[in-house]
Amino acid sequence: MRRLAIPFLLAAVLAGCSATEPGKPSAGDQTGSAPATGSSTGTAAPVNRPKAVDLTTVEPCSLITAEQRPALGLSKVEPGNPLPDFGEGSKRCNQTYASVKFVSSIHTLLNGGVDRLKQTTGESKLTPLQVAGYPAYLTQREAPGGAPVCEIYVDAHDGQLLLVDAGGVFGEKGNTPEAACVQAKALAEAVATALAAK
User: Fold this and answer.
1) What is the arrangement of strands in the sheet containing 102-109, beginning at the earlier edge strand?
2) pLDDT at residue 139 tops 90
3) pTM of the predicted protein model
């Protein structure tokens, strides 16, 4: 009788180790992942970034060094009030240019990544580009009063974006959308380079 009981007990134990229930490891699957189904639905390709940086740990003003300020034409860099629309824990840094024709800011967006950006802004209004090796998206808009604003969203981490914007000061000559984008691109390049070094 014992001879029959041992094989049945062993078979029951082995059957328990080879469960194929999704999310539960089996004897041949020590990773804890669900078994392959042959479908790629729901899986996104990994984003190619120089370094994924969790923006909850980043102070945006720390991304502009004292050496970069004169090269960028900045006269003032200081923390600002974060916008509630950008998620709990979001941070902001404001910059003033020596020429006083432009102002800019850097925001950490913690409540959604590129997919949310495409839904809220509209994919047709976004121009893809690379900024210091990071995937990024550029869009333009008018601020109240008609001053041009250029925004660059840097895909720094899954579900998080670094927004760098530059806008013309109302009433200043030479404030074109193109000029605002020149300022935003230069600032975004410097900031993203610093981000990749964190």
Assistant:
1) 74-80, 92-97, 102-109, 160-168, 148-157, 134-142, 127-131
2) yes
3) 0.76
